Amino acid sequence: TEVTEKLEEVIVIWTKQIRQVLVESEQIRREADDVGPSAELEHWKSRMSSFNSLLDEIKSSRVKKIISILQAARSKTLKQWKELDGSITIAANEAKDNVRYLYTLDKFFGPLASASPVMMEHIPSLMNTVCMIYCTSPYYNTSEHMTSLFLKITNQMINTCKTYLCEG
């Protein structure tokens, strides 16, 4: 029972740490007013990396051994652990899926950032791709995500036009 108690203490500490990561990941991002759409892709790539690292750690043999010992001891701490494991998996899947969809926009970011208002020829294709993301993505099709993306696209267009006007 002494070993079980020590392992339960470890699980409680891990649970608190994982909860903190989940809470921080859901907080509103603070970004500069003029940040472009590539920042959205970078955000999700970073989030995907963080959650995948956390998943790798959770699936490590060391953690699996501790979990199996606590399962054999019928520890009550495992209920919370399983819920958190599921939450981390969902967050990792969301980030991975969002990166996959946002990469379809990546080809538009260069022309959108070029210092010429000729970018207008790319807008219909860009909007069709955004529409496809909204219609097919199981995670990215929320008003918060789409608003953030449209804001960044608009920021980039404004910055590109400012640059063009100042150079011309």
TrEMBL record:
Listed GO biological process terms: microtubule-based movement
Lineage: superkingdom: Eukaryota
Gene Ontology molecular function, alphabetical: dynein intermediate chain binding; dynein light intermediate chain binding
Pfam families to which the protein is assigned, alphabetical: DHC_N1
Dynein heavy chain tail domain boundaries: 5-166
Recorded GO CC terms: axonemal dynein complex
InterPro entries (UniProt xref): DHC, Dynein_heavy_tail
Membrane-spanning intervals of the chain: none
Family matches, as PANTHER family: CYTOPLASMIC DYNEIN 1 HEAVY CHAIN 1 (PTHR46532:SF13), MALE FERTILITY FACTOR KL5 (PTHR46532)
The protein's name: DYH5 protein
